[in-house]
UniProtKB/TrEMBL annotation, chains A, B:
It comes from Senegalia massiliensis. NADP(+) binds at R12, G13, A14, V15, S159, G160, N314. The gene is asd. Its EC number is 1.2.1.11. The lineage of its organism: Bacteria, Bacillati, Bacillota, Clostridia, Eubacteriales. Keywords: Amino-acid biosynthesis, Diaminopimelate biosynthesis, Lysine biosynthesis, Methionine biosynthesis, NADP, Oxidoreductase, Threonine biosynthesis. Pathway: Amino-acid biosynthesis; L-lysine biosynthesis via DAP pathway; (S)-tetrahydrodipicolinate from L-aspartate: step 2/4; Amino-acid biosynthesis; L-threonine biosynthesis; L-threonine from L-aspartate: step 2/5; Amino-acid biosynthesis; L-methionine biosynthesis via de novo pathway; L-homoserine from L-aspartate: step 2/3. It comes from the Bacteria. Residues 5-120 form the Semialdehyde dehydrogenase NAD-binding domain. SMART domains: Semialdhyde_dh. The active site is at C129, H241. Pfam families: Semialdhyde_dh (PF01118), Semialdhyde_dhC (PF02774). One of its GO terms (molecular function) is aspartate-semialdehyde dehydrogenase activity. This is Aspartate-semialdehyde dehydrogenase. Substrate binds at Q156, R234.
Amino acid sequence: MKKFNVAIVGARGAVGKKVMELLVERNFPINKLKLLGSEEGSGIQIKFKDEDLITEQAGKGAFKGIDIAFFCVNKEISEKLAPIAIDEGCIVIDNSSCFRMNKEVPLIIPEINPHDIDFHKGIIANPNCSTIQMLVALKPIHDSYNIKRIVVSTYQSVSGSGKKAIDELNDQVKDYIAGNDISNSIYPYQISFNALPHIDDFIENGYTKEEMKMVNETKKILDKNIEVSATAVRIPVIKGHCESINIQTKKKIDPESVKELLSKFKGIKVLDDPLNNLYPIPITAEETDYVYVGRIRKDFTIKNGLNIWVVSDNLRKGAALNAIQIAELLIDRILKY
Amino acid sequence: MKKFNVAIVGARGAVGKKVMELLVERNFPINKLKLLGSEEGSGIQIKFKDEDLITEQAGKGAFKGIDIAFFCVNKEISEKLAPIAIDEGCIVIDNSSCFRMNKEVPLIIPEINPHDIDFHKGIIANPNCSTIQMLVALKPIHDSYNIKRIVVSTYQSVSGSGKKAIDELNDQVKDYIAGNDISNSIYPYQISFNALPHIDDFIENGYTKEEMKMVNETKKILDKNIEVSATAVRIPVIKGHCESINIQTKKKIDPESVKELLSKFKGIKVLDDPLNNLYPIPITAEETDYVYVGRIRKDFTIKNGLNIWVVSDNLRKGAALNAIQIAELLIDRILKY
């Protein structure tokens, strides 16, 4: 069985760490793992399986001999480093939003559009966390009933903003208990005991970039004819994003058939027995691979309307897991064992 | 100026306490205040202005000589005590859901349907917290543009479940910091660092009673032709409910005109300058009387679509303040000064 040389750029961040963890968990065919980061972040010892790896600076020469690099950094760093990596013969799986809407770059959710990977030119983009879990849940519904329009409101955890945001929430909660003043630096306001309708930057049309990612990535991945109206909100949860999704389909839809359809779809777990308090919640999704769907019910206010509630671990299926599944798909369809 | 004998039933709960506080703050024309509660809750000394009041047991005889009673208890207790109070000549302003949909009972938001109070037969119902803030925000929009359909997802604080729920969240956060196991009794799961798509009981159609309150109360208060599709979610916030609201109107609508319209409406404060991080959040709304509206933007996916984000203190405008405003309206229109 062929093994591959793999690099992680940004190995010490929340997503980078999760990629390392999942490479072991999924027994990914690794020959050599290289951990790359900033200049200040290099020279640090990190354990991987039985080895002690030392982080190295990402830059020219760092990607020579590497087959696949997981980029777990922001879009500015991705933009700078991806061309270098490609030049040195490496395939980049990029977690940032940098290349997602680039027509030359496939944007992949393996359960939805695996064959798009065949057209890659060195970069494969991993979609936004909120988009991934929404589209996994909606793919089987769209295939059967043809979705026209989506109205979605998100409930997103702080881990989506990285390790420092998790620390900020923890610190704020500690200060609250101690009766100290609460300070903030990652978010414009305290996130503890609060809710912020503000994820990523605002643009001129009044939406945030996060909201527009859900609009545009849905069109690129699932169907360009689907209209999405999104409101993205940060809440004081550590891991796991929730989404309240309202859809209208072209074909007649009923909740019972949808439940059955979703139950059969790979990667989805239906939790929907509300009278017994069974519905998806972040603490159930935490550290698991599934996209959980519940509260599946008819929207009585419109023809062919449906409401669902979707929860998933944003660091796993929303980021690291989907990136590794892309790498597995790449090996399966292109690099071959 | 005429003064009134007032009673608070459930004076030691979260809403009851807030009613007491607001009676002072608003300089309500009180002659005598009587604090009523359960048998176990009687005989307790509570300060009101310069007086030390002693709680008494609610029941037969307790409402004699009382003009207005604020009922801040659950619907079972309201159902039992309201007929007694009426019988003893007292007008009941009820915070529970017990009488809201009763055709003989006016359901009042003073900014919206003040004249409905004229038909009262002894009970006036205070609407659900989530309904009040949504309808205050939507009233001026409906008057100008005629709302056809609302899709709303809520982000509700624990104070909506009363004082014990605030204690439960605080205890859970303390246990989390101390590294102890987290226990729960008010909610079916931990609420700290979590989100529960479950407020009040589930009914057969898959919705919760909380969600159906938003549907039915909107029709009774604002317009029976408005369709509401609701998802109600509890999040770990102490005070202040948020709502992500998507509407479609019959008339052509544009965000700038809506912003102007809302700015002029009594009880609303528009906070909408996202590029300067200005949007409503729970910690801004806490302990204030306004319904805050922001993120006012066109929904590009539908004809005459609009998205808004609404936040208000659920114990104030969502409960105690609206109840007192009903009492003020009652004095103004019926009891007279």
